[in-house]
Design goal:
The complex is a heterotrimer of chains A (about 250), B (about 120) and C (about 600). With about 250 residues, chain A is mainly α. Helix content of chain A is about 70%, strand content about 0%. Chain A has one domain (about 5-245). Chain B is built from 3 helices and no strands. Chain B has helices at about 10-25, 30-50, 75-105. Classes of the chains: A mainly alpha (about 250), B mainly alpha (about 120), C mainly alpha (about 600). At the A-C interface, helix 1, helix 2, helix 3, helix 4 and helix 8 of A face helix 1, helix 4, helix 5, helix 6 and helix 8 of C. Chain A: It is a multi-pass membrane protein.
Amino acid sequence: MTGRVRRWALAAGLAGTAALMVAAGTGLPRFGGDQHPYGARAVAASLRQQTANTISSVNFDQRALDTLGEESILFGSVLGTVVLLRQTRDEHRVRPRPERVPAALRRYGAGLLPVTLLIGLYIVAHGQLSPGGGFQGGVVIATALHLLYVGADYRALERIRPLGLFELVDGSGEAAYVLLGGAGLLAGSAYLANVLPHGTFNTMASGGTVPLLNAAVGLEVASAVVVLLAHFLDQAIEITDNRKAHR
Amino acid sequence: MTGPLAALPYATAAWLFLAGVYGMATSRNLVHAVGCLSVTQSSTYVLLLAVGYRRGATAPVFSDVPTSVPVVDPVVQALALTDIVVGATVTALLLALVVQVDKGHGTVDPDELSELKG
Amino acid sequence: MVRLLPLIVAVPLLGAALLVALGRHVRRAVAETAGCACAAGSAALAVGALVLTHGTAVTWAGDWRPHHGAGVGIVLVGDRVGLGLAALTSLLVVAVLAYSWRYFEEPPRGHAGAFPALVLLFQAGMCGFALTGDLFDAFVFFELMGAVGYALTGYRVEEPRPVQGALTFGFLNSLGGYASLLGIGLLYARTGELGMAQTGRRLDAAGGPDALVTGAFVLLVTGLLVKAAAVPFHFWLPDAHTVAPTPVSMLLSGVMVELGVYGVARVHTTVFAGPGGIPAAHFRRTLLVLGVASALTGAVMCWQQRHLKRLLAFSTVAHTGLFLTGLALMSDGATAGVCLYVLGHAGTKAALFAVTGILLDRYGSVDEHQLHGRGRGAWRLGLLFALGGLALAGLPPFGTALGKALVEEQADWLPLLFVPVSAVTGGAVLRVAAGVFLGAGPVPEERPGRQETAGDEEKPETGGLLRWLPAPMITVAVLLLAGALAVGTIPGLAEGTATAAAAFGDHAGYLAAVLDAHHSTPAAEGEWWTGPGVALGLLSAALAVALAVPAVRRLLPSGGWTGPLRRLHSGHVGDYVAWTVAGIGLLSALTWW
């Protein structure tokens, strides 16, 4: 197709879509209004469930099925990336060379790693209380491990990153979420029902299953991100392509 | 915010969507096109959060405020969180495909990929 | 039983999680058996729910039931059509996993279960999408099947083409998904609800539709129409099918595309079919234009192909167009016909892809020209392929023919579209069958400079070329075709479908069942074969043969007039994005005026 046809199709489409959006926008409620019926019900339900962080209550209790799907998208995408970035027949691995890192950077990495790891764990553990939770904390935990790549080199990262173990944890986190949902059925309620005691508001032991589901997601996200980055880093550092060399 | 400025958050969402689509359609580099797709997606974050905003309200977390204070809509925030996870993972998947396109075709310019046609 | 509905989604997810967790420690045969068992467990749940429950099975995840119609939870709605699609999906997944038994040369190192795990996740996404009664939850499952679908399409990364096709698939489906999410956001702004039934009830209470409702509708269905591969949102489908591993193509064409069609109909009937939604005339016009355009484009492009998988892909575009046309009629009879058509089409199309996959693994090509006469010894394969072609054309008593006949009865002009379109798609398959398995006619000439995708560069998906026909592959193909035959010959199925369709189209009934636990079963008379229906089926099958015979002898013109249409299918992701956004503009115009 010639670029001219594309430009016309694009121009017409953008104009039509813009017109649609402007027209639809005239029907939107005033920005910052007070009418949020679902939001108001969600806040009330969250307080009844003794969950101070209402967003976590929505994500892990009231709409926990969405989060099962969301976690599965992450899980499936990481598995997909593992498959897509696998070492193919034409490729071989080179052992990464040790890298020299400035001493200041090394100290910075070494100092920051445990702090970051701790913050990540804190964010996962306090998902029912304060902003954060399994997704956010999991990413922070995975980031902490990669400070080793910045502060030392790829070989150091590889030593603390046995991929087999991380894949085991990745799958276990996903399985734990599915099984915690099944516990609701076994307890005589519905799938993903919050059947544990709701505990005391604004304490660690509150929210019923919310902290457990957060922990499952935290495990899954932390290890999934490690596995994901491992495959991208492998492509950049270890895997060389014979096909490309031949061209 | 009152007057025409009150429409700004909504207008921003529409603009991000259109700008991302324009970028994808005219891109000469697949990595750039994946970035444009993320721009398109960010329109959904802006719309959701704008819809849930409430004037004078605080974050919907009650660990350090009394339960009587008005808060913004927590549902859209939960949706935006889900949306962000979806966006990040799909971006990773598409970038993995771009890595392999580069290996297989030796280029990431969509104009030079012409194996599938007709 | 009703409480167990979420398990239809959860069982495959658990299977995938275990396959990944233990992937390094199990042998391939164990992983594949476990994958099959999980898919079959989910299939048993879906079929069991279909048999054991009556009317609309409603369950709230987390037991968050609404009070006086207002709640905070997500509802799963196992009505007949939703459960039927979940059952169809799960059964097809079992067939696909059995077909791909020992399929790929070797799984990725240390990931023996990667392929079955991805297929299970795909199954979970599709079943969740079929069962959910919540708009945002539908978006989540839409994205799950999307993300896993891109990875499965690009599975054979050693070759350059698959990654390109998968990337196109990923761009367009993601773009469509985000458009849908904008639509969901607009509806949330108006109604403050995410459930389909709740949103529909609030819109009805708010009075007549305005620009916001129209805009939300257009954006919401854009994503679903991309999934359904309706013209002009269809460009990703031929490219993805051309390159995807054969078992994946079976799932994409057999159920995923149809789920897009289902999504359009589901969202329309639950949210937009009431007084506060989209006027019926506007909806009908929109769907008719897209349906007819898809049917014609698909048929013309299908006839022009020499790459077998691409040919089948375009025939899916054509048949999706027919499904959309049937749904545009908005009558229970037409919906029942479309349901049967979808069931028959799934079996037929999956069987045709299965045979194509065997050809690829045996002869190392899926190119009509290159395979000419090479299948002479494989009469069983040839018979299957030709039967599939006849079923596609609508030969009674295949389920495709019954479904087609039931839709055609709804209006006098419909046979003028359905007969030629199904005849051309079936005729293209018969043309291939005659050339490849009988060696009929002269060897096709190469047409240098022609804008086309040849199928001679595809690599077999098994370790090397197969010397014999593997029993699982043949068995699956035979069973799938037998399933398509059963759809047209078991009267109980047609009766059940009629009831299902009547409940599916009942806007008020759905709202009452979900929000007020008030169940009513609309009575529906099951239609069955009629004289004109059989005659039209025989006519389109005869027409398919009549097209195939001169085509094999090269007596038909080469179709140079299709050049401009073929050039639109450029494989360029920028072009396709432009057409997608042009499609949003087209939808706006059709829905507005």
